[in-house]
Design brief:
Shape: globular
Helix content: 10-25%
Distance between the termini: 24 Å
Oligomer: single chain
Largest sheet: 5 strands, antiparallel
Number of helices: 7
Order of helices and strands: EHEEEEEEHHEEHEEEEEHHEEEHE
Number of strands: 18
Bound molecules: flavin-adenine dinucleotide
Strand content: 25-35%
Amino acid sequence: MFIKSIDFSKYSSIKIGPTAEVMMIERGDNIPTDRYLIGGANNLLISPTPPLLMMLSKDFSTIELYDNILTIGASTPTGKIVSYAKRHNLSGFEFFAKLPGMLGGMLAMNAGVKQYEIFNILDSVEIDGEWVDVSQIEHGYRYASLGGVATRARFVVSSGYSQSLADELKALRANQPQKPSAGSAFKNPPNDHAGRLIEAVGLKGLSIGGMQWSPMHANFLVNNGNGTYNEAIELIELAKAKVSEEFDIILKEEIRILD
Ligand SMILES: Cc1cc2nc3c(=O)[nH]c(=O)nc-3n(C[C@H](O)[C@H](O)[C@H](O)COP(=O)(O)OP(=O)(O)OC[C@H]3O[C@@H](n4cnc5c(N)ncnc54)[C@H](O)[C@@H]3O)c2cc1C
């Protein structure tokens, strides 16, 4: 293992956070249990005083195909996975084209688009050195209880990469804000949309300092430049309070807040 200094105001997708010393885990290392594991920081809001952090190094950025079993290392970026699937004409990974992150973050979040979710195509995950069958992992909408550090995952693959599906899903991005964000701030409550609720309580487009509930998509908390952690938290708390007051619905964060 080695220490890497990472400036989260540049590395994280929402462009907020301090420069912190992150422990980089290499193959064969004992993985610490007193550090918070991050991936590509596309779903994180990091405070000025975050917990101790760690990250899987490039040692875990691997893709191996034997017969119809694809084994992918947890620090493999989604873009690399889609390129591989395309090159080898494999189906099932097209929706990765829309999702920024690394495989480990995708697994922990059960990331997905529309009806496509990573758990639908997953066979098993190597967690803390043990292979665990997907049926043994509790998971749901944007949530999976991995119970440890995922280092690799296996997928049973079949042929037939669909460029049109990848393009269709990627095109959904065009309707989303292009400014720095961490994707959807809240999960959609059952049978509703967090964006609709935020708009209904009049917060769409509201700014505090450099942070804003996007005028384009109300559930995206965007950074217009120099936005801070505290401003983001204020907007999140305001949305929760107003939606609870007016609709009696408790919004739950999809983004992970590291305080
Ligand atoms: C513009 C934009 C659009 C987005 N659109 C979508 C979307 O449509 N659908 C969607 O689902 N998401 C979306 N996201 C969110 C993001 O793409 C996903 O949550 C992605 O899976 C995050 O991956 P990451 O590597 O960046 O994880 P991080 O943000 O670094 O971490 C997320 C969580 O995963 C955990 N984690 C990371 N690696 C591991 C590991 N190896 N083992 C165990 N736990 C781990 C972390 O502890 C953390 O709790 C979007 C984000 C952005 C910025």
